[in-house]
Amino acid sequence: MKHLILADTLFGGFSVSLLDHEVYQCALSFLIACFLSIVSIPIIINLSALLNLTAKPGFRSSHHTDTPTLGGIALYASTLIAFFLWPHAAEIKDSNLTNLSMVGLTILFFLGLKDDILALDSTKKLLVQICASLTLVVMGDFKVDYLYGIFGWYYIPDWASVPLTIFIFIALINSINLIDGIDGLAGGISLIAGMGLGFWFLFNQHYTFACLAFSMSGSLLGFLRFNFSKTSKIFMGDTGSLVIGFMLSFFAIAFLRLNISYRNDPSAFFNAPIVVMVMLIVPIFDTLRVFIVRIVKGGSPFVADRNHMHHILIDNGLTHFQASFSLWMVTIINTTLFFLFHGDYSNTISLYIYIGLFFIYMGVAYMLKKRATERQEKKKYIQTASFTDQDISITKKILKDL
């Protein structure tokens, strides 16, 4: 009996200590979020089919059948459930900021949900996004007020930092929304960025931020299983892209704020802004490029088209997985190269290198777009020639019968 009590005490205490340790909580949050996402998405797919809440194929679509678009419900719910399993009471400041972020997150969840069902005006969507971001910036004093010496700028006043922070929120939210055009792209890029930032928060003992980042990443992993499915496909929709974009913006700004101590903390990055920009290189570059191309052509930067890099890759004959995987690798390779070779370059020089990479990206996109156009024209020519030959053979047959 004594042995049983001792074993129960030892193993019971060991299991409790596992659950009490923040590292294991983060790992469990990731797994639970993934499980909840996988379990809940089939229910959402069935409800979407019953209520006819599906996306119809259009000129910009890369799918050919009606597809449910409410995957963001599963992402939102599974992330929050997995995150709030633990108290997060030890880190008061981080916990308060994270709890406050739930206000903006919930606002954007309902905005995206309404947009997926009814379609909203872009101006109204932008205003709501600004309001959601202001809840953190104003009520939580959560802003980017240090520029790490870029172009000689360090601390900046509120009149500059508040608009800059709002811009970062709006830019990242909409860049994730804009790259959500093919299976796995927005989800995969967000998963990579979420895991990367989550591990940094974890290693630097900001467990509240880490737990939310891993919860989001787990929900995305579960979502990707269905996003790539041929029989049970679902899209994250605006509900998902707005929610994920907001969380990535929150993590990115938190990362920038926490690394300001780099002069006295060897674990902090003196080039934190460049790190964030490299990790999110695909949505940033693609959004900038598309806006520039639309303006150069004399159109509105907000009018949708098929000029995104993922559309270009699809038009060049790649499958959804191949196109998404290529852009995932762009993120991973650039991030790896940055950490291998960034050395002690100043942030200003790093920014110039980043701009140079953008021009290379523009050039590659131009050549691929040209190749895709030639490929489509050749395909049309072959189809026309084939149709003409068929017409000739039918005509010969009719004449022969006469």
Structure in words:
The structure is a single chain. The protein has helices at 2-20, 22-51, 71-83, 92-118, 122-139, 158-178, 185-203, 207-227, 237-258, 272-279, 281-296, 309-315, 320-341, 347-401, and strands at 54-55, 67-68, 146-150, 153-155. 74% of the residues lie in helices and 3% in strands. It is mainly α and 402 residues long. The protein starts with a helix and ends with a helix. The protein contains 14 helices and four strands. The strands form two sheets. Strands 1-2 form a two-stranded antiparallel ribbon. Strands 3-4 form a two-stranded antiparallel ribbon. It is globular.
User: Can you count the beta strands?
Assistant: 4
Name the helicity range.
Answer: over 70%
Look at the helices and sheets and give the structural class.
mainly alpha
Strand order of the largest sheet: 1-2
Cα separation of the termini: 104 Å
What is the average of the pLDDT values? 87
Low-confidence stretches: 1-18
Largest sheet: 2 strands, antiparallel
**What would you report as the Rg, rounded to the nearest angstrom?**
24 Å
Q: What's the helix count?
A: 14
Q: Hey, roughly how much beta strand do the residues contain?
A: under 5%
Give the H and E element order.
HHEEHHHEEHHHHHHHHH
Q: Can you tell me the overall shape?
A: globular
